[in-house]
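User: Hey, my collaborator sent me this sequence without any context and asked if I could get a structure. I don't really work with proteins. Can you help?
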Amino acid sequence: MEQKSNRRDSRIIVNGGAPLRDCPVSWDVARVRQDMANAERGVESAHRPMWEWDSGFKLDYDGPIVMLSSRFYPPKTHYGPTWEGNVKIVVGDTLLHTKQFDCETLDELKRKVEEYVSWFQTKIEEHVEKIVKSENIGNQTT
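Assistant: No problem. I've predicted the 3D structure and written it out in structure-token form, which is a compact way to encode the shape of the chain:
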């Protein structure tokens, strides 16, 4: 009579086991697929998410949706007597808004820019929260 064991399978699975359909089998294949997936979306941009393989061939779609870009020129004879520049708000590849700053001191510039960016960030968070609630898209998966 055959005796059954109560032991559980004691195999160790590294990186989730053997690859199944669509899982790359090498980093060369993974990079080609990554490049193809990003190329299908058009020109590469630092302002939007990109496909990228992580360790164990886990697939990530990471990157910014909203970006802040700024430049301020210091007081010099060539630029002028004040700290002057702007803050740009970019969504994807679309410039949404530009806010100009012209400040007498670096401390004033720092305070005004940080206040403005903090205010703008709060507004973005409020609007995104409203969208998520109105679309009822909380933790749904598709």
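In plain terms: The mean pLDDT is 82. You can pass these tokens on to your collaborator as they are.
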